[in-house]
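Just wondering, does anyone understand these tokens?
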Amino acid sequence: MRLAPFICLIVFKNLMKILRLNSTLDNKQITERCISLGCLAFSPSLVNSEEEIKLAHFLAEKSFKNKKNIAKTLELEMLLWLCGAREIKKALQKSNFLPNDFILVCLKNSPNEKDFDAKSIPLNLEKKAKPLDLERISLSRI
């Protein structure tokens, strides 16, 4: 019984790709490509670590599994968790990004920089999150 969470973590890690990009496209074009490719783009100021992104993804999947999701797509549900919001409009405002510096999280496919007419830049995120950052995400629906 103890192996199941470990196995899920391995599968989960292989499905997600996290990039930081500098694109020549505008926000609308980036958003359209995100929708078609199953990705999520947001401002780097929204997170401090990769662990926060992984937690938001886990909680979004759990919301869908338990039929407690607010958004219709996993990407938007994940954004709600990242932003600590219950309203999609507020989450979109909070996560607004600049095309010359944004984080792209790919959940379904493995797009690359070329799909967004972009250059990859260093991620500059911590591997581990601070306790308060994780608390902000995990307690946002209470």
Q: What stands out?
A: The radius of gyration is 15 Å. The mean pLDDT is 88. The chain has one domain: 15-138. Residues 15-138 form a domain with the PF0523-like fold (CATH 3.30.2380.10).
